[in-house]
Design brief:
This protein is an alpha+beta fold. It has helices at about 5-10, 30-40, 45-55, 60-70, 75-90, 95-105, 110-115, 125-140, 145-155, 160-175, 180-190, 195-205; strands spanning about 215-225, 250-265, 265-280, 290-300, 305-320, 320-335, 340-345, 350-355. The chain is built from twelve helices and eight strands. Helix 3 (about 45-55) runs antiparallel to helix 4, helix 4 runs antiparallel to helix 5 (about 75-90) and helix 8 runs parallel beside helix 10.
Length: about 375
């Protein structure tokens, strides 16, 4: 599943039904019974405070703490409490569903799958079970099975949860390349919760333009290098008189940033920039600076295929003197094959214009053509 979809799933507020989940046996402490009553009435903070003040322990107290932390979306604390309930009462059936939800929302996908596998048969009548089963199936790119799970969650869900299940059903069927079922699910979201954020997302997906906000990014990488042959000294070639050695260390850095400037229907585009530089400790005549600017244009051919046209233009200086003007045009076709992976087919056409004169090598005959050393061109 994509990171944005996982964030959306993590933001879901699933109301666990406390009724029966913390039912007390006659010998149980009265404080746990009072805390359970508070939790069932939606007063989880008071229930937690009561459990803490009373020092209540045991599997049912741990289960109640885990459920209350889950309701407050304190997922890591919920996992710790529910694990304690499982340790104190191995196989406790009431802990499995909340443990599944908590583990998924802390990013423990394998742990969530284990909790799903340990679920009692009775849990299959709960909409949360099918919702999170669908999310786990999406993580494994089992998209059609995920769509069916979300559809089942919607059938079992209370009214307020149905738009959520229907939206993820649409996402799953879209990933399974079943546009008809995907559109039907998105239509349900719009009908169930008109004007809501879920409906807006469904409308965008329905139009095939669920792109999200324009993206921005930037990064910087820096370090140091040691080069035993900065001047590219060859056998029998003397160093210039003002250079005492051919080795040196240098600081190096690469800064990169970019922005998507627009997306309109199937078209989008933007610009990025990269700046490579280095600074030698002693041989400063070899310091290099090379900025590059790269605008691009994308065309979405279909759900799985993208065409990109990019133009790169750069200029380089070495030792303060201009060294290179370079240009490159890159048409590229990307295709997503699903579980089989992705492919990229590119053509790169470059032109290099070196800004220093060509010369005859030392010791070469007078008839040596200087253009043999000319590196300009396509």
């Amino acid at each position: 599943m994509t990171a944005s979809a996982r964030r959306g799933a993590a933001a879901l507020s699933i109301a666990l039904l406390f009724g029966g989940a913390v039912a007390a046996a006659p010998e149980e402490d009265a404080q746990i019974l009072r805390a359970s009553t508070l939790a069932r009435s939606g007063r989880c903070d008071e229930a937690l405070a009561l459990l803490a003040d009373s020092g209540a322990s045991g599997p049912r107290a741990a289960l109640l703490r885990g459920q209350c932390h889950l309701e407050a979306k304190r997922y890591a604390q919920a996992v710790a409490a529910l694990d304690e309930a499982q340790r104190l009462s191995p196989g406790m059936p009431d802990a499995q569903l909340p443990l599944l939800i908590a583990r998924y929302n802390v990013g423990d996908i394998e742990g969530a799958r284990r909790a799903l596998g340990a679920m009692p048969q009775s849990a299959t009548q709960r909409p949360e079970y099918h919702l999170y089963r669908g999310l786990l199936l999406l993580e494994g790119a089992e998209n059609a099975q995920a769509g069916a799970a979300f559809d089942r969650a919607r059938e079992l869900a209370p009214t307020e949860m149905q738009p959520v299940a229907a939206y993820y059903s649409g996402i799953a069927w879209l990933s399974a390349k079943d546009r008809e079922r995907a559109n039907a699910s998105f239509d349900r979201v719009i009908a169930l919760a008109p004007g809501s954020e879920w409906a807006k997302q469904a409308e965008a997906a329905r139009r095939g333009t669920a792109r999200g906000p324009l993206t921005r990014w930037a990064w910087l990488r820096a370090g140091a290098e040691w080069d035993s042959n900065v001047v590219l000294r060859g056998d029998g070639v003397e160093l210039p008189g003002d250079i005492s050695d051919e080795s040196d260390g240098r600081a190096v850095w690469v800064a990169h940033g970019g922005a998507e400037l627009f997306h309109r229907g199937d078209f989008s585009g933007g610009i990025s920039g990269t700046y490579y530089g280095n600074a030698h400790f002693d041989l400063t005549d070899f310091d290099e600076h090379h900025p590059t600017l790269s605008p691009w244009l994308d065309y979405r051919i279909d759900e799985d295929t993208l065409f990109r046209l990019r133009y790169d233009v750069g200029y380089a200086w070495i030792g303060g003197d201009e060294f290179l003007f370079d240009q490159q045009v890159s048409p590229t076709l990307y295709h997503d094959w699903g579980a089989a992976g992705r492919s990229q087919l590119s053509l790169r056409v470059s032109y290099l214009d070196f800004k220093f004169p060509t010369s005859t090598p030392l010791g070469a005959p007078a008839t040596f053509p200087t253009n043999y050393r000319d590196r300009d061109g396509w």
